[in-house]
Amino acid sequence: MRSRFAPDWRLTVRMLTVVFLLGLVFVAFVAVLIALLKSVVVVVVIAVGVLAAQYWFSDRIALFAMRAHEVTPQEQPELHGAVDRLCALADMPKPQVAVSDMDLPNAFATGRNADHAVICVTTGLLRRLEPGELDGVLAHELSHVAHRDVAVITVASFLGVLAGLVVRFAFYSQLFGRDSRDQNTALLLTAVMAVSVVVYGLSFLLIRALSRYRELAADRSAAELTGRPSDLASALVKVSGTIARIPTEDLRTARALNAFFFSPALKEGSALATVFSTHPSLQRRLDALAEISAGMGLRA
């Protein structure tokens, strides 16, 4: 999609690389499964159906999961006004706008393309942020739409879903299968589970690495579009500092969409935990925004 968001070739290369590597892993995975267990074709068909539903209806699924609903300009004039200004500034189509009635301050973008995109914010975010900070968050989410990385993450997640289904299939076949006492069958199903676990681990790490970079890319694009990196940094600090005070029920509801959020609905863990995180650390994002701010000052 053409827009005034600067093309991010580093993000594009990373997305293509991850999709290519996952494609190779997927082909090898299916070949091994067919060789080991012919009946796994049923699982593959089910997984493809899950992917198709996730891809075509990702916006509806996400809104349902967050108990969100689309709002009109009459219902949320300030929110729509901010999205209108940013879309005009970015020269891109306006996505649907939705609000989730949750105290958790956060936002996300979803949808398979610009024509079927939705930007959703929570009432907790609207209550806590100043207009400039809200602009930074909305610009961040619009960047995800413009760069199509939401659709890429959705498709890339398919291999992990497939591997997880196969692990369950093999596990329950061992427990309840007619031939569960047959040693050859048990070894076969154990091999299937082992291959599936390895594939799931590889896809998990590749997707997490892409997810962390795309958040930094969206921060950079939002800061450049609005020209106010400090507002985005302030929004990050506010949102991250509020997580500990959010009701547990809201956090449980939100964690299923953690990879798509502006800020993770989780407390930051150890340095090792960042390898498995969907987002860079708060300090990493603030440092990157400080560099952008310094660069803008030099250019000025």
Automatic annotation (TrEMBL):
Binds 1 zinc ion per subunit. It is a multi-pass membrane protein. Residues 73-292 form the Peptidase M48 domain. Its EC number is 3.4.24.-. It is found in: Cell membrane. It holds the Pfam family Peptidase_M48. One of its GO terms (molecular function) is zinc ion binding. Belongs to the peptidase M48B family. This is Protease HtpX homolog. It comes from Actinacidiphila reveromycinica. The lineage of its organism: Bacteria, Bacillati, Actinomycetota, Actinomycetes, Kitasatosporales.
